[in-house]
Write a structure and sequence with these properties.
The protein is mostly helical and 224 residues long. The chain is 78% helix and 4% strand. The protein is globular and about 45 Å long. The chain starts with a strand and ends with a helix. The mean pLDDT is 76.
Length: 224
């Protein structure tokens, strides 16, 4: 079971519903313009401000002793952790470039839409770090890290990332119905998540099975 109580988590679930619908509404005319990108980034910034200014924060508060001098901190575990994170970011950037090229290659070789490859192959590969992080956090008993990470992995790409890409280069789509269909599943998953956290303030084993089943239905619907 995963603890998912607190007003912040439940309010963020509502925000996830908005992020699931807004890109589709903005893409209704077939183009996600630079102005649409500004709207998405503005929504992301507004969410961050709400999150940091909110007084009733959920989760555990950690207290630590006064930080040592900077030079001593460099010799401690924190510095090694920072280097590990930076190395991980560089590796992710390099992997992202390879994934984009591979996605185009498979789409052309198999004669399927790039969007389909992105939803099934690239999307699943992108979720692997989230899965590993969730398992590692669960073993340490940090269940709220799991919830925060997973909710962030929905909100950030749907607002900041998509908005930034639209500002750099407007996005056109010829598969509007296909995109709407995938967002419907995301909206259903978000609604279920909100119901689960609202009722028992946790995600139980059976509720996890329901979410997994929803994903399998989505994959079956996309393929067939």
């Amino acid at each position: 079971e995963i603890e998912a109580g607190g007003k912040t988590i439940q309010s963020t679930a509502v925000f996830m519903m908005i992020t699931a619908l807004l890109p589709i509404a903005l893409l209704f005319d077939g183009v996600l313009s630079r102005f649409d990108g500004i709207i998405l980034i503005g929504l992301f910034v507004g969410y961050l401000l709400w999150l940091f200014l909110k007084q009733d924060k959920s989760g555990r508060i950690y207290h630590h002793e006064k930080d040592p001098p900077f030079l001593l901190a460099l010799l401690r575990q924190e510095f090694r952790d920072i280097c590990t994170v930076l190395l991980g970011i560089v590796s992710l950037v390099a992997a992202s470039i390879g994934i984009v090229n591979a996605a185009h290659f498979f789409a052309e070789s198999l004669g399927v839409p790039v969007l389909l490859v992105g939803l099934l192959v690239t999307g699943l590969g992108n979720a692997l770090p989230e899965i590993y992080f969730a398992i590692a956090s669960a073993r340490r008993g940090e269940t709220q890290l799991i919830i925060g990470n997973l909710m962030g992995s929905v909100i950030v790409p749907a607002t900041f990332v998509l908005g930034l890409v639209a500002i750099i280069h407007p996005i056109t789509s010829n598969s509007y119905i296909f995109a709407v269909n995938s967002r419907v599943y995301l909206l259903i998953a978000t609604i279920l998540f909100f119901i689960f956290t609202k009722s028992k303030e946790k995600i139980s084993y059976s509720e996890g099975v329901i979410l997994m089943f929803l994903y399998l239905v989505f994959v079956f619907d996309v393929i067939f």
